[in-house]
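Here is one record:
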Amino acid sequence: MQLEEQINRIKRRMDVARKQAKADLVIRNAKLVNVFLKSVQPRDVAVADGIVAGVYPAGEGPEAEREVDAKGKYLIPGLIDAHTHVEMAYVSAVPFAEGVLPWGTTTVILDPHDSSNVMGNRGVELLAREFLKTPLKVVLMTPPCVPSAPAFEDAGFEVTLDSLIESRNIPLIKGIAETMDFTRVLSQEEEMMKILAYGRENGLLFDGHAPEVRGLDAQAYFGTGPIRTDHESVTVDEMYEKYEMGVHVVIRRGSLAEPASAGELLRRLEGADTSRLLLATDGCINVSDMVHKGHMNYALRQIVAEGVDPMTAVQMATINVARAHHIDHRVGAVAPGYEADLVLVNDLKDFETVQVFVNGQEIPRGIKLERVAYPADALHSVKINPLKPQDLRIEADGETARVRVLTVIDKTVATVLEEETLPVNGGALYSDTDKDVLKGLTLERYGRGKGFGLGFIRGYGMKKGAIAGSIGQDTQNITAVGVTDEDLCLAINEVAAMQGGVVLVADGKVLARIAMPILGIMSDKPFTELEGDFQAFHRAYCDLGGTLSDEVFTLSLLLSLVVIPEGGLSNRGLVDVTNGRFVDLIVK
C-alpha cells in the first residue's frame, strides 16, 4: 500500500470515529466483551477499511454502508489458537481455513513441523503460500526440532541453525516453533545450543514443549532465555510451577481427555495476574468434532465448563495470545485501531457462533475458497521398496518370550510401556489377539534407506486385518498395526501406491482408504466431505473388532511420537521416552 493511500485511510477512520463520515460496517446493540476490563458493555462497533474505527454506547454509533443488529448477542474478538498444527487435521491450508473461520477462529499460531519433516523449508513455504490465499491470519513459527528427536528417529529433513536462519525468509514466519526435543536442550547438545543462542541474540520467541520437566531441569530448560511457552504440562502442579517461572502456560483443549483441570489451575491462581495463560487446540480436534462442535470456540466451551470465568477464558483465547506473540497491536481485542476480527456468539457458555468477520468482511458459514495446486514433488513423497511378510519376522528362542508392549491410551496423547509373555511359533513372534497385542511398525518413507522398527502394540482391539498410514508424528513416516504380516505388508504397500494417506485391510483385501496426497499427509477436501471418509473408515475398523474411538489419530500420534512419555516406536526401534533411551523389544 502506498504511503498516500495509508494516510487517507487513517484520516477516514478518524473521521468515522468522530462520526463525521460513514463507516463501512456498524454492529449495533451488541454485548461487547472488553478484554482489557474483563467486562461486558452494551455497545455499537464501527468499522472502516477493515479496522475498528470506534466503539460507542449502544444506539450511538455512526451511520454506515452496512448495519448488523446484534440483538443483544455477545461480541468477542476473533479467536486466536495459541499453538496448532494444520497437518494434524489431515487437510492443507485452504480447507483448514474453510473449516475454522466460521467457528470464530481468525488467527492461528502455527507450527508446520510436519511439512518440514517431509520437505524441509520447501514444504513449509508451499504451505505458507497456500495460507496467503485465505482470509485466515497465520503466524508461522519455524520448527527447530526436525526430526523431533534426531537421536531416535529419521525424517525427510533435518533442521540445522543454517536451515533455520534460511527459513526466516519464508512468508508469514515470525518466531520459532516448539523446542520439543527437551533432552537435546537439557544435555546441551551443540546444534541446539547454537539455535537457542541465535534466538536469544535476535529476540525471537520460542515455543516450548517440556512434558513432566520439573524442578531444576525446568529452570534450566526455560532459563535458556528464548523458550517462553509450554503446552505439555500433565498436572496442575506442573502448570503452576511453570507459571511461577514466568512461562506462558498454554492449556490444550480439543477432542482429547486432558489430565489437568483448567478450572483447578485458575483457582490456584486466584488473585494473581492470569495474562500469561493461553488457550490452544494443538491440532488435537478430530475431523468430526471440527464439523459439529467447532474449533477454538469448542476449546472455550470446555474450559468454561471446567469452572474458568468466561471473561478470563475469552482473554486466554484472544488478547493473552496476542500479547505473548507480540501481535497485540493488531489483533486480540475489539477496540479502536485493532483489525476488525469480530465474532458474534449467542452466549459465553457454549460460544455458538452467529456471525464472523475478518477485517470487517463477513465470513459465510459455508465459505468456499479456491484450491491451490501443489507441484509434482509434493504429491510424490512416499518412496519405499515394497515390503514382504518375511521382512517383518521377529525371531525368538524357546517356547515363550517376554516382550515390551507399547500400550496406547484412547482419547489421550499418552502411552505406557508394559511387558507381556507371547508364545514363540516356528522361532518367531506374532500378534496375539487374545491379549490385544498386535505387531506394529514404523518405516522411514523418504527413500533414505533408514529402515524400519518393529514392536508390539496394545489397544487397537482388532481381531484381524491391519491399518497403515503415512502420518506418523512427528517424522511423518509410515506407521502400521496389524494381526498378520501379510496384511501389514498389503496395507503399507497400498499407502505407498496412493502416495499418502491411511489404508485398512483384512484377509488380503482393501476395506477402506483415505487419500492424503499433499506431502503424503494432507487432503484438499473440505472437512464435511472428509468426515464421511473417516466415518466409513471407522465403521470398517470396528467391524474388525477395533475398540479405539479414533484409530487414525492414534496411529498418527501415539505410535511413533518419541517426545511424549512413556514410549514410542521409531524407524530405529522401541524408545523409552521417559528415560531417553532405546530398549530391546524382547526382555532379556
